[in-house]
TrEMBL record:
InterPro entries: DBL_dom_sf (IPR035899), DH_dom (IPR000219), FYVE_RhoGEF_PH (IPR051092). It comes from Paralvinella palmiformis. This is DH domain-containing protein. One of its GO terms (molecular function) is guanyl-nucleotide exchange factor activity. Signal peptide: none annotated.
Length: 187
């Protein structure tokens, strides 16, 4: 359906429906097959959920870069003990797993979007937040170990400096990400 510049979707569809003598019809978005609510022309919740999915995917990419660019290579790094590696990285894997699951579930919700019945609040369970709380409690130890490694281990410091370019972020800033998840989202 094409329309004049500035004409609403509702008006354009109404015109076609009258020309074709249609008494009832539904409009689906081509990109997601979501049903379009013609009374508002825009489903604000749908747009918010799409934005949430985009942001969660970016967050997930950053979590992956922590593991791919820093954690995996550091596993083989001689100056970082297995215990220190666990302190820095082990609590990220459950968060990444939940982020991956969340992206899949949000994407499923978008693909089957119904403005009247689709809800996503149940995706943010107590179990989801438990992993963030756990990471938050461990973060002072992570930060302390990082500070110690940066001040006493030149090999570690040089390794992180070289990896910074590949990750587009420092190890410090990436490890801070799960802590910076706004607390107000949990209430």
């Amino acid at each position: 359906v094409t329309s004049e510049h500035g004409q609403s979707v509702h008006d354009a569809v109404e015109t076609v429906a009258m020309e074709q003598k249609l008494t009832s019809y539904r409009i689906y978005l081509a990109s997601s097959k979501a049903l379009l609510d013609l009374h508002t022309d825009i489903d604000t919740r749908y747009n918010l959920v799409e934005t949430l999915l985009r942001r969660e995917k970016l967050y997930q990419e950053c979590l992956h870069s922590i593991l791919d660019v820093y954690a995996e290579p550091l596993r083989k790094f001689s100056s970082l003990s297995a215990a220190d590696h666990r302190v820095l990285f082990c609590s990220l894997e459950p968060i990444l797993s939940f982020s991956t699951t969340l992206c899949l579930k949000i994407n499923d919700a978008i693909q089957t979007w119904d403005p009247g019945t689709t809800r996503i609040g149940n995706l943010f369970s107590k179990q989801f937040w438990h992993h963030y709380d756990e990471y938050y409690l461990r973060y002072p130890t992570i930060r302390s170990l990082l500070k110690e490694k940066y001040t006493t281990d030149e090999e570690f410091t040089e390794f992180c400096r070289m990896r910074h370019g590949a990750a587009h972020h420092s190890l410090e800033s990436l490890l801070l990400l799960p802590v910076s998840v706004p607390k107000y989202l949990k209430k």
